[in-house]
């Protein structure tokens, strides 16, 4: 038996849909987008998605989340070749609560 798609609600809201949250003022609109599960701050830095990092931090992603080698986003900033991007990312991470003292597997910190 086939079910018409008109009868079923969409499983994931499209990016163009606006969702209102009861806890915030209705003047502010929240845009619902779904990001892949593996897409986090360390992944964005390692793959050069520098413009996404501020957005991820606004979505309350953890600024201290580690990658497979226990490197924090601040440690990964030291591997970015462009100094302006590196400093900008580090500043955004520090504003959102990134910790300098966290060490990776080789006992290096930011």
Describe the protein in words:
It holds the Pfam family Ank_4. The protein has 110 residues and is mostly helical. It has a two-stranded antiparallel ribbon. The protein contains four helices and two strands. The protein has a domain at 36-110: Alpha Horseshoe (Serine Threonine Protein Phosphatase 5, Tetratricopeptide repeat), CATH 1.25.40.20. It has helices spanning 41-46, 50-58, 73-77, 83-95; strands at 18-19, 30-31. 18% of the residues are buried. The chain is 30% helix and 4% strand.
Key words describing this protein structure:
single chain, 110 residues, Serine Threonine Protein Phosphatase 5, Tetratricopeptide repeat, 4 helices, Ankyrin_rpt, Ankyrin_rpt-contain_sf
- Main sheet, how many strands, which sense, barrel? 2 strands, antiparallel
Mean pLDDT: 76
Radius of gyration, whole Å: 18 Å
The largest sheet has its strands arranged as 1-2
The coarse silhouette is: globular
* Series of secondary-structure elements, N-terminal to C-terminal: EEHHHH
Q: How widely separated are the two ends? A: 59 Å
Oligomer: single chain
Discrete helix count: 4
Task: Record the SSE blueprint.
Elements: E1 18-19, E2 30-31, H1 41-46, H2 50-58, H3 73-77, H4 83-95
Antiparallel strand pairs: 1-2
Helix pairs in contact: 2-4
Could you provide a short overview of the structure?
With 110 residues, the chain is mostly helical. The chain has a domain at 36-110: Ankyrin repeat-containing domain (Serine Threonine Protein Phosphatase 5, Tetratricopeptide repeat, Alpha Horseshoe). The chain has helices at 41-46, 50-58, 73-77, 83-95; strands at residues 18-19, 30-31.
């Amino acid at each position: 038996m086939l079910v018409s798609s008109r009868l079923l609600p969409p499983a994931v809201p499209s990016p163009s849909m606006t969702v209102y949250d009861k806890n915030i003022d209705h003047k502010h609109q929240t845009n619902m987008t779904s990001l892949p599960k593996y897409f986090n701050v360390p992944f964005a830095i390692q793959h050069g998605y520098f413009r996404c990092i501020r957005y991820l931090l606004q979505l309350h992603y953890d600024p201290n989340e580690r990658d497979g080698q226990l490197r924090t986003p601040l440690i990964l900033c030291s591997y970015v070749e462009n100094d302006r991007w590196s400093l900008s990312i580090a500043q955004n991470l520090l504003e959102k609560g990134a910790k300098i003292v966290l060490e990776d597997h080789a006992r290096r910190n930011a």
